[in-house]
Amino acid sequence: MSYFARLFNLMIEVMLPLSILVAAGALWPRVFRDAAVDVMRTQLNRLVLYLFYPCILFAVAASTPITGALLTVPLLVGIGSLVSGLLLYWMLYRSPLGRGLQDTTRAILVVGGMFGNTFNIGVPVLVFFYGAEAMRYAVFNDMLMTMPLLWSLGVWICTRLGTHRHDVGGPSVVKVILTMPPIWAFVIGFVVQQLELTYQPLVTATRFIGQATIPVILFVLGMTIPWDKLTPRPEILAVSAVKLLVTPLIVWGLGILLFSPMEEAQYAAVVEAATPGMVTALLLADRFRLDHGAAALLIGWSTILFWLTLPLAMAVGLIR
């Protein structure tokens, strides 16, 4: 299949439904003036956190054998995130680009530029390229790389570089595990799979419930992006460029260096690295009193620009 034929299929199968869901979230409060946006967003996020996302994590973990190839995805994306974080730190704290910015803005942009929306946007793209089972790459990347790094190094950046709260102890990953249902669902599914206790009807049932995760979150994403305030600030566009172009290039280079010739799992890691900024940056901004507006702008611009950078990554061979 030619590049343009594949790109056309990608636009129809992936970009169109994702764009409709985001647009629906953006238009909803404008069409239905009585909609309590903040309440809707909070309740939908809770529904995802406590029901939809745990179900899909359990279904995938309970039916996915662990392989070396699968583990290369969180490895490569994790290294790419760390290298990008160092680059973003230099850009925002040491170069003229960050001059005049508050530390609360710099810190949330570093974190927002390190971690992508690897499940909600990454999964549809992965499924398009590699089939339905490719969801496992996003699930294991989230659980083995994003969650541990975000709630340890990411929180450290927010508290030490953003708010300078030296009274805050090291963020406890164990505490996060004890309080977040998605992580427990993944662990239970993993144990079930390792003990060969997988019950396929239960996997099918939980997968069916979990299918609502991506549509709901994309709808919420549309409600979250500040569409009337999308000012193209230089630091926002620069961080978006690192997230969407530099990070996947780093991961691709690592894949070539460490696993040549690259196979499906390594290309899946590039897809994961190429995703736009994650919505969790807003949660961190609120929790640690960082620049909420900058986080929202980064999510908005990186999501919009993703529809341009993804075809570019395809064209130059980073994604196959």
Short structural summary:
It contains 14 helices and no strands. By secondary structure, the chain is mainly α. The longest helix has 29 residues.
Strand runs, count: 0
The name CATH uses for the topology is: Na+/H+ antiporter like fold
Strand content: under 5%
Query: Could you name the CATH class?
Result: Mainly Alpha
When the domains are counted, the total is: 1
**Cα separation of the termini:** 12 Å
Helix content: over 70%
User: H/E element string?
Assistant: HHHHHHHHHHHHHH
Largest sheet: none
Mean pLDDT: 93
What labels would you give this structure?
about 325 residues; mainly alpha; Na+/H+ antiporter like fold; globular
Description of the structure:
It contains 14 helices and no strands. The protein is globular and about 55 Å long. With 320 residues, the chain is mainly alpha-helical. It has a single domain, classed as Na+/H+ antiporter like fold (Up-down Bundle).
